[in-house]
């Protein structure tokens, strides 16, 4: 009986740490975290940043690298511009989405496309700090000395098909997004690292024009 | 009325000749030639920028992404197609014996006919499921045509000056034409590839990306 209780106790202890990322501990005071994040993002109007993207193909032990420019303008405008090794542009402006590759520009209205709406919203929510209230994901918040990590587990069937988990890493002082990791069901994941980030710099409205 | 009849006859002649077998004038080569299997691509991994353009029932479609080929140490081959943001669309695998399987495909692309077309395209490019014992060599206008029998139709590997320039899949007429760009070595993967599906009415354009895959 004692052995059984010990085993149950062990399982309970280890169970509490299973979902915890290495080097991070669970944020104890969620209210405090949410207040601090809301305060930091209240003054946020724009973000301009460079990014490096690494796609990790787990079974093939390979990484595909790309880089580009990222822009955000409150409330709901995002521009992701890949510059190397290929050119590709994604602009989200409300429900309007534009994608442009080397050959063609396509405009899409996300209103009738639930999956696209969800992807659109998660990207915007990450940037403006409203990700904890996103209904498509169940969040868990962790911290270490330098950063917060928001682990987002999909709850809707559309998002479950696309992602196993999305991790958003925030600078602990400024609450800037420094890294975004999108893990797929098969084990592959895409890592976006944001560098040279400028907050509230002038970002021309024309960058978000969906033509 | 006569004018209509003449126009009708012209149209018939045009249709007849455009559907006629384009390979019927090929002369079988009498001299011994090395097999086209010398062109079978040898690579560790190769990354392509991929753009697809087509038309279904008068509606145009366009898709772009990255196509990654890798040969693994156990002699299996993988082809992974992902969008620019890194999301995988499909992951195909060929065993050591060229047996094909789909490891992953998104619902939107998970159509048996489409998978079959993509498998055939990649089989032709990578020279998988090509049976050397069915090879016949023809010559025409300075070009060498290496013909292989497939389960359905034939495949021509067309070379000029010992360089593979195109691959054609045909039944009674051409079904797929694959135009190959420059190769650094005889059996490298080409710098660019254009798949033109004459019946299915779509084109796949691949352009090699050299430097951005690491282990």
Brief summary of the model shown:
The complex is a heterodimer of chains A (211) and B (215). Chain A is of the alpha+beta class.
Folded structure, characterized:
The complex is a heterodimer of chains A (211) and B (215). Chain A has helices spanning 2-18, 30-42, 114-128, 157-162; strands at 25-26, 46-57, 62-73, 77-84, 88-93, 96-100, 105-109, 137-143, 147-154, 165-171, 177-183, 189-199. Chain A is of the alpha+beta class and 211 residues long. Chain A has a 12-stranded antiparallel beta sheet. In chain A, strand 8 (137-143) and strand 9 form a beta hairpin. The longest helix of chain A is centred in the N-terminal third of the chain and has 17 residues, at 2-18. Chain A is globular and about 50 Å long. Chain A starts with a helix and ends in a 12-residue tail after the last strand. With 215 residues, chain B is α+β, with helices and mostly antiparallel strands. Chain B is built from 2 helices and 14 strands; from the N terminus they run H-E-E-E-E-E-E-H-E-E-E-E-E-E-E-E. Chain B has helices at residues 2-19, 112-126; strands at 27-28, 45-56, 59-71, 77-82, 88-94, 100-105, 136-140, 143-149, 154-160, 163-170, 174-180, 192-197, 202-209, 213-214. In chain B, a hairpin with a 4-residue loop joins strand 8 and strand 9. Chain B is globular and about 50 Å long. Residues 10-18 of chain B have low confidence and may be disordered. At the A-B interface, strand 2, strand 3 and strand 4 of A face strand 2, strand 3, strand 4 and strand 14 of B. Strand 3 (62-73) of chain A pairs antiparallel with strand 14 (213-214) of chain B, so a sheet runs across the interface.
């Amino acid at each position: 009986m004692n052995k059984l209780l010990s085993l149950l106790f062990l399982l309970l202890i280890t169970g509490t740490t299973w979902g915890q990322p290495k080097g991070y501990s669970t944020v104890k005071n969620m209210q405090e975290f949410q207040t601090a994040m809301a305060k930091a993002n209240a003054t946020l109007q724009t973000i301009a940043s460079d990014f490096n993207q690494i796609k990790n193909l787990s079974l093939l032990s390979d990484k595909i690298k790309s880089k580009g420019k990222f822009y955000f303008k409150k409330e709901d405008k995002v521009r992701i511009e890949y510059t190397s090794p290929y050119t590709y542009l994604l602009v989200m402006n409300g429900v309007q989405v534009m994608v442009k590759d080397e050959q063609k520009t396509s405009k899409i209205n996300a209103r009738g496309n639930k999956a696209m709406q969800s992807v659109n919203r998660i990207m915007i929510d990450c940037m403006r700090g409203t990700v904890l209230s996103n209904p498509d994901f169940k969040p868990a918040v962790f911290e270490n000395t330098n950063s917060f990590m928001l682990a987002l587990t999909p709850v809707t069937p559309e998002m479950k098909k696309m992602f196993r988990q999305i991790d958003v890493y925030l600078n602990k002082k400024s609450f800037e997004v420094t890294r975004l990791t999108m893990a797929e069901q098969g084990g592959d994941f895409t890592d976006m690292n944001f560098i040279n980030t400028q907050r509230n710099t002038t970002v021309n409205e024309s960058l978000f024009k969906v033509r | 009325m006569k004018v209509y009849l003449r126009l009708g006859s012209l149209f018939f002649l045009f249709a007849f000749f455009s559907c006629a077998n384009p390979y019927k004038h090929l002369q079988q080569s009498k001299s011994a030639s090395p097999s086209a299997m010398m062109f079978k691509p040898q690579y560790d991994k190769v990354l392509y920028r991929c753009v697809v353009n087509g038309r279904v029932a008068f509606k145009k479609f366009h898709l772009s992404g990255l196509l990654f080929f890798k040969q693994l140490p156990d002699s299996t081959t993988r082809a992974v197609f992902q969008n620019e943001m890194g999301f995988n669309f499909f992951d195909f695998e060929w065993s050591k014996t060229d047996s094909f399987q789909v490891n992953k495909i998104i619902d939107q692309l998970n159509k048996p006919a489409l998978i079959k077309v993509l498998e055939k395209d990649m089989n032709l490019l990578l020279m998988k499921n090509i049976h050397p014992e069915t090879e016949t060599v023809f010559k025409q206008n300075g070009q060498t045509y290496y013909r292989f029998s497939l389960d359905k139709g034939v495949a021509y590997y067309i070379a000029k000056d010992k360089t593979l320039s195109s691959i054609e899949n045909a039944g009674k007429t051409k079904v797929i034409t694959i135009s190959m760009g420059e190769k650094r070595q005889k059996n490298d993967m080409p710098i660019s590839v254009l798949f033109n599906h004459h019946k299915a009415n779509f084109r796949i354009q691949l352009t090699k990306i050299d430097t951005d895959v690491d282990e």
